[in-house]
Structure formats: structure tokens, C-alpha cells
Description:
This protein is mostly helical. It contains 5 helices and no strands. It is rod-shaped, with a radius of gyration of 28 Å.
Amino acid sequence: MHVGDPERTRATDALRRHYVDGRLTDVELEERVGVALAARTRNDLRASLVGLPRGIAVDATGIVRRALVIVAAVGAWCFISSLLLVAFVATLAVAGASAGVFIGFPLAWLALTALLYRAAAR
């Protein structure tokens, strides 16, 4: 069966991903891309991909690790936000309302939120 430009493009993209992942050298990439671009049939395209894994696997451990970091950051944010709210209410009850209280606690909460966001974004 004949192939067109979209199939050749997908094959060359796959070859480049294999190159980036370290499965191909510069010379191998150049040779295989040449074969893929000259391919007229699916068998020709398969020849350019021979010996390489069919699908590039997704790193599931990286995804799970990222999800755990986000869950931990959200949990820490909720816990510390609750503590700040309790401290805010206790300060209002003991010391009364003042500009420092109404400015200090929201600034502390914003700083906490920014720090946890940055930590989770890494």
C-alpha cells in the first residue's frame, strides 16, 4: 500500500523522538530519515523504523510523582490556610480589629500560596 506525506512525517517525527531518547546516533538518524522520506510503501516506512520500539512509552512514574507533589502541596496549603484562619480569628478575639491584623494575615496567606505554588511547579 502506498504512503503519503502525512505518513512520512509521522515516521520522521518518531525517528527524531527515538534520536532524542538516545536510541539513534546522528548517522543512524540521517540514514533512517532518508529512507523514510523516500518511502513509497508501508514496508519502506517500516524499514526506516526496524529495530526500534513501536510506541514510545509514557513515563508513568513521572506522572504519578507529579500528581503526588500536587496533592501534597494542596494538602499543605489547606492545612496552613486553616491554621492562619484560626490564628486570624483568635487575634481578632484577643487583640481586636486593627489595620495590622487585616493587612498582615492576608499578606501572609498570599505569601504562603505563592511559595507553595512555586514549590509544586518545580
